């Protein structure tokens, strides 16, 4: 009995999958052209599904990264007594910049609003870890007498385990509307330090919650 040639459907998947591993650009162009032609037999479905899921995850990870950096800076402002005024100014400027990036990500990807609790928890974990590493670099005791490892344990013990900052104090934007981040909203302890050290006049609002309403 003659052997039947493999159908186009069975031929496409191995070729597409191999190209995916060897040359992602060519694979993506091939998949785009196949979809435009409605040639679904040529679509590398499994890899395409994974790539689409990864695109969504990238937006989530980007928000978490910005939030983690903000938490790192807020902890440094609050706990780093050795920081110069210029350090505080730079960290405060970066907090404002990351807030804008976070708000833009939400504006373009509103589906992320349902992930706030999970994203904020992840950001706290990594932001705290990064703050410990950075505070070690400023530690005067380490420069004089203790090792870097001892300084790491010292700062890991000094920083709070549970989040001391509310979501609104970190982001300074309304999580339910399209308001832009405010520049004068900070965690109370951080606002106090910025006011004392830099002569700012930030309101210390321990019960701040962003107002609901129209675009500012």
Keywords:
216 residues, mainly alpha, 2 domains, globular, disordered N terminus
Give your account of this protein's structure.
Helix 1 packs antiparallel against helix 2. The protein contains nine helices and no strands. The N and C termini lie far apart (77 Å). The longest helix has 35 residues, at 45-79. It has 216 residues and is mainly alpha-helical. It folds into two domains: 15-41, no CATH class; 57-198, no CATH class. 66% of the residues lie in helices and 0% in strands. It is globular, with a radius of gyration of 24 Å.
The fraction of residues in strands falls at: under 5%
Number of helices: 9
Average pLDDT, rounded to a whole number, is: 85
Distance between the termini: 77 Å
Element order: H for helix, E for strand: HHHHHHHHH
Helix content: 55-70%
- Structural class call reads mainly alpha
**Shape summary:** globular
Total beta strands: 0
Query: Nearest-angstrom radius of gyration?
Result: 24 Å
Stretches with pLDDT under 50, minimum 5 residues:
1-16
Largest sheet: none
Determine the oligomeric state from the structure. single chain
Number of domains: 2
